[in-house]
Amino acid sequence: MSDLNHQRQYIIRLFFALSAGVLIAKALHLQVLDSSYRSKADATAIDEQVVYPARGTIYDRHGKILVYNNPTYDLMVTYNQVNQDMDKKAFCDLLGITSKYFEENLNKDWGDPRFSKSVPFPFLTKISAKDFARFQERLFQFPGFRPVLRHARGYPHKNAAHLLGYIREVNREEVDNSEGEYKPGDYIGTGGLELSYEQKLRGKKGVSFVLKDNLGREIEAYNGGQLDEQPESGKDLISTIDLEIQTYGEELMKNKIGSIVALDPATGEVLAMVSTPTYDPNILAIDRDRGKAYNGLLQNPNNPLFDRSIMAQYPPGSLFKPIIALIGLQTGAITPDRAVSCAGAYYYNGMRLTGCHNHPHCFNVETGIQYSCNAYFVTIFRE
Known about the structure:
Blueprint: H1 2-33, H2 35-42, E1 45-51, E2 58-59, E3 65-77, H3 88-95, H4 99-106, E4 121-127, H5 129-136, E5 145-154, H6 161-164, E6 166-169, H7 172-176, E7 187-190, H8 192-196, H9 198-201, E8 206-212, E9 218-221, E10 237-238, H10 243-252, E11 258-263, E12 270-276, H11 290-299, H12 321-331, E13 345-348, E14 351-355, H13 365-371, H14 374-382
Parallel strand pairs: 2-10
Antiparallel strand pairs: 1-8, 2-3, 3-4, 3-5, 6-7, 8-9, 11-12, 13-14
């Protein structure tokens, strides 16, 4: 009997020992080996984050890049998540900004529908890779701030500023009238091809859901990222512009005020569209100095922002000269060999009616058109 009791006690002890071992092993697995359970336990919030798409690239007719994307970082802020007792000096030193800039860009007019204390908005744009790397190490110290990958525009050849246009942040009216398509901080094309093809170039935003701990640090994708929506990049655009002709036209118009438009006579396609004075489109890229650069262009007395190729009003003048010649030839009023002597102006009864530039003698219709002689065409028009 004693042997039987001893055997029973041994079995009971073994059972409890094995059970304890299983429990310890399970606890070890949960706490040490399987970090996913631990991270889920630490998570205190699910953060919905916008993922911005790459904007479409713009090419010339031969495939040369006119506008490309330059990856950069914007720092977004959600006001009601910001710790008002944060170390503002350390924050400003990390990003190279002043305390005045901090206050002006954090505190908004909350009556303005573009801004909400619970919706992220841009605090600082186009952060350099160096500043971003330094800031990211201490990001957990500043809840409410989140870096976002964006795409600023780059112009490798610095040509065709008016033709290409530029991008900027949407304004209040554009947000209000967009029926939800645009949110504060979104970029929109302004002027030129960037505006005309905005719907094609801008792409579609995505969204990701991220688990965060009580310090605001990202832990992992929520539900393995199954609810995330990937952004759709914008469509690329191949223009009819010939970069070589565009560059040549801008060189011809350097230090001049005016415009040149070159067309393909067979198709009517625009090969070049020059307006001068012009500017380097890179200075209007999205960054903290953009406002200063834009104001400088606005205050320039030569008005470089004005697109003279499509907005300026010029007297048609010489455009009618070939038409006058054609009418004269068709009616028999003149012959192709009609010659007119130009004395630097057109005179009628001894009175100078219109001037003309210095050029060789016009000995037929072709040279009259070639030299665009005012005296020649006034004469044949009267005939």
